[in-house]
Amino acid sequence: MKGRAPVSWGARFGTVAAVRILYVDVDTLRADHTGPYGYPRRVTPNLDRIAADSVVFTRCYCSDSPCAPSRAAWTSGQFGITTGAIANFGPASEIRMFDRTRHAPFFGGHLYRHGIHTTSISCFPERHLAYWYVGNFREWIKPSLSNGDDEDGQTVTDAAIEWLRRRGRAENWLLQVHFWDPHIPYLESGHWVNVVAESGPAPDWPDEEAIAAHADVYGPHTALDLYEGDGSWSVPAATSPNPATMPDAITSRSDFVRLVNGYDGAIAYFDDNLGRLLHTLSELGILDETAVIVTSDHGECLGENGCYGDHPMANEASHHVPLIIRWPGTTEKVAPALRQVEGLVYQLDLCPTVCDLLDIDTPPGWEGLSFAAALQGEHFTGRPHLMLSHGAYTYQRSVRTPEHLYIRTLHPGMWRIEREQLYAIEDDPHMTRDIVQEDNGAATHLAGLLEEWRRTYATMLGAAPDPMEARRYESPAEAFSVANYLQRLEKTGRSHLAADLSRRLAEPWVLSQRW
User: What is the pLDDT of residue 16?
Assistant: First the structure.
């Protein structure tokens, strides 16, 4: 019996013109701690070099945080309310696989159907038990876990350079390289800390007054509870995981400076490894013809909402991410005045944008909108507002407009946060003054937009129930023990805060089955 001749994906769907894409995924990278976003310290010279021929999106946000829901969103082209992935672990982190079809395929799978070989170098799928992520790629490379649960930047870069030397000169590939270094604990002490410390002073905020006020903010990764000793924040960690860059607590400016030097040092270390990747592309003779995309899964709080060294909320610091795109033959032609794009965009908008740039179809089930026009120097205003969701440490959703950030808390976890918050975010980027009471009209309007969005995606589009509403009564973070944390507050002389936490968790809008 004569067999049927195999048909390649590219032949079936249409192969794109020659393209090479380096996708640099930097975990926990605040945009405002990099040169392209105006950071005064000289921390990212190699990223600055890429940005010179790129379009920089100054208001890009991950739709969902933290790590797992963010990557579920950008790789599926859909919000967490649609994918079902709203948390880092457990049932709330599982993506709804039934829709990973031609209606809404994974981003990498869609590219492969059009002849692009997709590869990921990352330990993320194993670290978060998120093996659905591998479905994006034809090739998954997992370097050794050289930093315990994570990979050191040099290890990742070595693997990427080996891949590039093996396959880089070929055409039609996307290589995702995932750097963990800016994620806590900040391990790059010594040389890199000295480099950033000598490049300029630490940010002015938080000042001593703000740090003193943060002593009355409780919860994991707050000023007096930076680390856990037993997985539930019930007892202090015996020592800081890295005393050179991470103090035992944040009680003064000197403590904050040590912490931010550690964070910036990790960014500088990543940037040095980015330089190695760029040098390799140059050696291979393909640097000028390789598209480079640099972004992050989420940001990092450095005092915002009283949190230090984590990303536990749907706030500005956790959701604002860098997005820098150099697309050869396109972005270098954009007038310099148009290379800083202020319009609001989601990171998941990248999926249809790349499709437009490659002149291939965008799957109908993706929820992003292309911003290819901005990369081509055309007029681009961005979205009127963004909806942001966090479902790991707290359950929160927020609305980001050009002027405001409205935050609605469905469950506060173990943090001292209010049910509603409103900030004039452009004038108050660190969210120091909640204006929800004095501008109730704006809060009411934005709350209405949020509910309209929720109902649209959870009901009108025929999706499954809102995963955050379904999970909120079981509480957000499974690793936390409220009883143990209350004991910790009592034993450390903060009985008044223990009483406040108990009162908040007993309120009807918070009360959960598990807690």
Answer: 54
46's enclosing H/E stretch is helix 45-51
**Cα 155 versus chain centre, distance:** 22
Q: 345-346 and 55-57: which strand pairing?
A: unpaired
**Residue 46 near residue 292, CB atoms below 8 Å:** no
Closest CA to 181 of 25, 292, 36, 45: 25
Residue 9 confidence class, pLDDT cut points 50, 70, 90: very low
CB 260 within 8 A of CB 309: no
**Two tokens, residue 423:** 């900030």
The token duo for 454 is: 């929720």
DSSP for residue 225: B
Question: How many CB atoms within 10 Å of residue 11?
Answer: 10
Overall average pLDDT of the 275-290 stretch: 97
- Per-residue pLDDT at 233 exceeds 80: no
Q: Which residues of 121-158 are buried (b: 16+ CB within 10 A; e: fewer)?
A: bbbbbebbebebbbbbbbebbbbeeebeebbbbebbbb
pTM for this model (two decimals): 0.94
In this structure, are strands 291-295 and 323-326 parallel, antiparallel, or unpaired? antiparallel
Q: What is the reported pLDDT for 138?
A: 94
The token pair that represents 117 in the structure block: 């070989």
Going across the sheet that includes 60-61, the strands are 320-321, 60-61, 345-346
Q: Where are the alpha helices (DSSP H) in 144-207?
A: 153-167, 191-198
Token pair listed for 139: 């090739």
Q: What is the mean pLDDT of the chain?
A: 90
Name, in order, each residue with C-beta under 8 angstroms of 411's C-beta and a sequence gap of 6 or more: 394, 395, 472, 475, 476, 510, 512
Give the long-range contacts of residues 125-130, CB within 8 A, separation 24 or more.
128/67, 128/68, 128/88, 128/89, 128/93, 129/89, 129/93, 130/68, 130/71, 130/72, 130/93, 130/95
In single-letter form, the type of residue at position 100 comes to R
Q: Are 302 and 260 in contact (CB under 8 A)?
A: yes
The pLDDT value given to residue 513: 59
Comparing C-alpha atoms, which of 229, 211, 208 is closest to residue 220?
A: 229
First to last CA, the chain: 65
Instruction: Compute the distance between CA of residue 30 and CA of residue 37 in angstroms, rounded to an integer.
Output: 10
What value does the CA radius of gyration of the chain take, rounded to a whole number of Å?
A: 22
